[in-house]
């Protein structure tokens, strides 16, 4: 049994290595904008969406012919929302009103990607894309709101659609669910809030 497991592991490693060897890789630069709200586990106060921005680099690795592959990025991302803390007496009594909660992240999204490559040549002009995968966000800065606690980062799920123009420019729209909390109140039993983000991004590949 032990020999069978070792053989299976060796076979998987060999298959993965050979797949990487024939895959087609490239990299590009990404810029974009996002629209974020913070969803608390209970309705504490009104939360307004804020517009943010993102920029960084993306690497893409696609299997030739079949349309499947993945991409990974390293991005600077600004997200956040406006928290109406003044709606609750516990914070209004401390002088809080509408507080602009801005979060700065180094973000690493990793997507499984599918490109519709067999469109009779049309894909050379405009190629549809689907993608889904996790994103890991590391907090590097935030607004100074003493009523709020911030974790060191968050984990989310990102899914979206897009298209590739002339095999060079990708335009993607996606939605990101925060699966771990991005902010937590210091009072009222540590209520947690998670990011909910719409994103639009363009990547130019070299």
Description:
This protein is mainly beta and 206 residues long. Helices cover 12% and strands 62% of the residues. It has an eight-stranded antiparallel barrel. Strand 7 (153-165) and strand 8 form a beta hairpin. The chain is elongated, with a radius of gyration of 21 Å.
What is the CA-CA span between the terminal residues?
48 Å
Number of strands: 10
Assess the beta-strand content as a share of residues: over 45%
* Main sheet: strands, sense, barrel: 8 strands, antiparallel, barrel
Strand order of the largest sheet: 1-2-3-4-5-7-8-10
Low-confidence runs of at least 5 consecutive residues: 11-21
Q: Please report the number of helical segments.
A: 2
Q: What's the average pLDDT?
A: 88
* Class of secondary structure makeup: mainly beta
Give the overall silhouette.
elongated
Binned, the helix content reads 10-25%
The helix/strand series, from N terminus to C terminus, equals HEEEHEEEEEEE
Radius of gyration from the alpha-carbon trace, in angstroms: 21 Å
In short:
The chain has 206 residues and is mainly β.
Key structural traits:
62% strand; mainly beta; 2 helices; 206 residues; 8-stranded antiparallel barrel; elongated
Annotate the secondary structure layout.
Elements: H1 2-22, E1 24-40, E2 47-62, E3 68-84, H2 89-92, E4 98-115, E5 126-142, E6 148-149, E7 153-165, E8 169-178, E9 183-185, E10 192-205
Antiparallel strand pairs: 1-2, 1-10, 2-3, 3-4, 4-5, 5-7, 6-9, 7-8, 8-10, 9-10
């Amino acid at each position: 049994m032990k020999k069978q497991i070792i053989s299976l592991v060796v076979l998987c490693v060999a298959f993965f290595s050979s797949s990487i060897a024939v895959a087609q890789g490239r990299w590009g630069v990404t810029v974009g904008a996002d629209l974020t709200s913070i969803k608390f586990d209970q309705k504490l106060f009104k939360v307004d969406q804020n517009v943010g921005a993102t920029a960084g680099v993306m690497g893409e690795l696609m299997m030739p012919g079949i349309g499947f592959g993945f991409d990974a990025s390293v991005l600077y991302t600004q997200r956040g929302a406006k928290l109406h803390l003044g709606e609750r007496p516990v914070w209004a009594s401390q002088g809080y009103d509408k507080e602009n909660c801005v979060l700065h992240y180094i973000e690493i999204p990793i997507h499984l990607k599918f490109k519709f490559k067999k469109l009779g040549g049309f894909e050379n002009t405009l190629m549809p894309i689907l993608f889904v995968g996790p994103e890991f966000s590391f907090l590097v800065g935030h607004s100074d709101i003493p009523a709020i606690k911030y974790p060191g980062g968050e984990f989310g799920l990102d899914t979206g659609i897009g298209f590739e123009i002339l095999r060079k420019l990708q335009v993607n729209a996606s939605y990101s669910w925060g699966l771990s909390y991005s902010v937590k109140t210091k009072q009222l039993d540590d209520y947690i809030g998670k990011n909910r983000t719409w994103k639009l991004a363009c990547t130019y590949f070299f």
